């Protein structure tokens, strides 16, 4: 009876894994096909022969997709740096510093997570237009370059779990609040910082609505908007679109492989606490 239950669990897990991975496998398979292969054969058939033609079209400048990749990488780096900097400082203030209304202010700030992102699009657009930042790189990144409520929440909960004795010992040695943050709290919080970094990169890398609204033309569009435009620009050339999605996913997978140990460790520690 026990082995039957175990077999059933594994079958359910394998089914879930297959349903999750199938779209990605199909995307990669299609990316290595020519348009003729895709049109004449089943979409589930393996590419025969394998071709890199679609990737060549994307990266040789004919579609300006390479520019979109560079813009996306630069925007993600700037957003990660800004959000980490301000979120870490805000989380430390909420976790370790005492001031009137600290907890009430934190929960008010956290409640902004309940506001749908689409509600903020028009006000943000009007602000960027008034500042003359429409269809610019700064208009693309500036609204999201500061602290994130979700990142602040994760970091605050982790900071609260750091032993107070370590903080007190640093203060006895003459460290001020900034020294404690930089020399004690941040080094001990590398797992959760890695997790926040990955979450921020993924959310900004996959952002579509705001870049679509604030950018026009090909000058400052990121990889998501560039991929969407390929469908209409090349009359539904799905092999080209799937090659673009493959290029968009590969950096995220590489990032996860680099940070997977820290992510698992931060989840385990946070769950234990």
Q: Which segments are poorly predicted (pLDDT under 50) over 5 or more consecutive residues?
A: none
Number of E-state strands: 0
Largest sheet: none
Mean pLDDT: 84
The second-level CATH architecture is: Orthogonal Bundle
Number of helices: 14
The CATH homology group name: MetI-like
Shape: globular
Q: Give me the Rg, rounded.
A: 23 Å
* Structural class computed from helices and strand pairing: mainly alpha
H/E element string? HHHHHHHHHHHHHH
How widely separated are the two ends?
35 Å
Number of domains: 1
The CATH C-level name is: Mainly Alpha
Provide the helix percentage. over 70%
Report on this model:
74% of the residues lie in helices and 0% in strands. It is mostly helical and 273 residues long. It has a single domain (24-272), classed as MetI-like fold, CATH 1.10.3720.10. The chain starts with a helix and ends with a helix. 25% of the residues are buried. The model has no long low-confidence stretch (mean pLDDT 84). Pfam families: BPD_transp_1. Residues 69-259 form the ABC transmembrane type-1 domain. Keywords: Cell membrane, Membrane, Transmembrane, Transmembrane helix, Transport. It is a multi-pass membrane protein.
